[in-house]
Amino acid sequence: MIAIRGAITVDDNTREEILSSARILLSEIIKSNRLEIRRIVSVIFSATNDLNRAYPAEAARELGITEAGLMCLGEMYVEGSLPKCLRVMVLAETGNERRGARHIYMKEAARLRPEYAKFFAVAVDGPAGVGKGTLAKKLAEALGFIYVDTGAMYRAVGYFCLKENISLTDSKLVENALAGMSLSVENRNSIQRVLLNGVDVTDELRAPEVSDASSKVAAIPAVREKLLITQRKTAEGNNIVMEGRDIGTRVLPDADIKIYLDADIDERARRRLKDMADMGVRANFAEIRRNLEDRDRRDTLREHSPLKRADDAVLIDSTHMSTLQVIEAALGIIYDKTGGLYGIRDS
Ligand code: DC
Question: What's the pTM value of the predicted model, to 2 decimals?
Fold first, then answer.
C-alpha cells in the first residue's frame, strides 16, 4: 500500500474550476504512479475555505473511482497560507510490487513542495523546413513555457567545425573537437540564445552552409550523446516546448505531449523559398528542394536516433494548413493531453 500526496491551486471558486482541477490532479497522480483504479483504497481531499462551490470527490467518481472511500474536508487555516488550494491524499494497493510514491504538486501549489513539482514537456519533432520552430515558439509564448531549439545546438557544433576547419565527415576528428567545445543555451522571452565557449553565436547559425554542416555532424554518435545531456539538463525543472528530430523518441521519451509535424516536401520547399524572398534573398526552388531532400535523407537514415514519429506522437500534417491552423490544432492536442490544464479546447 502506498500513500500519495498531491496539491493544486484552483483559478476560480467555481464548480467547473474545482472539478476540473481535481480531475487534472488525480489523473496525473494515477498516471505518474501507474495506479490501477480498482486498487485505489481511499481518496481524501481537503480544500482551503475559499473553495466551496463543489465537492472534489465528484471528480474522482467521474474518473471511475467508485469503490474507494472518498471524503472532502476543510483544510485548517494558517495565516499567510496559499489560497484556493486543493490537497489530496490517495491510498492505493500496489500488490507485490514495492515502489515509492510519486507525489504531485501542480500550478501555484508547486511552491509548497518544489521537489515534487510537476512540469510539462511538449515535444515537437518533424523534418527540416516544416515550421517546427514557428510552432514551438508560438506554443511556448502561449503557454508561458521555455522554448528549446535543439537543432540550434547541432548547428553550433557544425558552425564550430566549419570555423576550425574540422572535416565534417571525419567522426573521430569531430569527436575530439567536442572536448574544446562548451555549449549552453539561455532563454530570453521565448527566444533562445546559443553560447559557444561563452560567445553568443545565435545569429551565425541559420546560414545555408551551417544547415548542411549541422545535419552531417548530427549523424555522429558522440555529438548526439553530448547534446543529449545538455538537452535533458535544459528540460529539468522547467515547463518546456522542445523541438527537434528525436525529442519524442529519445531526448524526452516520457514527454506529456508529443507532436509530429509533417508536410509534403514541395510545400516545405515553397515555404522556404517564400521565407528567403521575404528576407530579400533570391533562391532557386529546385535547389532548395534538393537540399531539403538531402537533409531528410541524412536525418531519417542515420543509424543513431533517426527522425521518426514516436508511437505516441500526434501527427499534424500541415501541407494544406495555415500557421494559425497548425497552432490551434497543437493547442487542442495540448488541451486534451493535459486534461484542460493548458492549451485551448479544439472547436
Ligand atoms: O531543425 P534544424 O534545421 O535547425 O536542425 C539542424 C540539423 O540538426 C538537422 O539537419 C538535423 C539535426 N537535428 C537532429 O539530428 N536532432 C535534433 N533533435 C535536432 C536537430
Answer: 0.86
